User: Fold this.
Amino acid sequence: MSFEAALIGAAIHMLFWEKLPEWGTWFNRFIAALPAPLRTLYVQWRCPYCAGFWIALCLHGATGLSTLAALDDLPAFWGELATPLGWFLDALVTAVLIQIVVLAINAIRLPAMRAAMLKKEAMKARDG
Assistant:
């Protein structure tokens, strides 16, 4: 099992749905300028599993990365369906891992932010 595709996919998901909208107005203007069907897809694919599936398919096609190497060589009885089926199943597995990574990071984020705020308040109270 390889985690490269899942980590890259989680990074892409976090970039497009969490960070770019915060980095100024250019990205939000870009999304607003897209045709309505593409804007709808962007809004609906906030789910790390849904977006992760398509990110994983694109990553596999662009880089050849796969999460489960066994899905690269499916039995011969699948014939011409072996390659698309392998990509599809691998994207499903990778999407699950992307969702786990994003959920884990979000679970860690809140306590970390709270601790940082408490530390800032303590430093301010000490200095003030």
Observations:
- Helices lie at 4-19, 26-33, 36-44, 48-63, 82-127.
- The two ends are 53 Å apart (CA to CA).
- Residues 82-127 form the longest helix (46 residues).
- The chain has five helices and no strands.
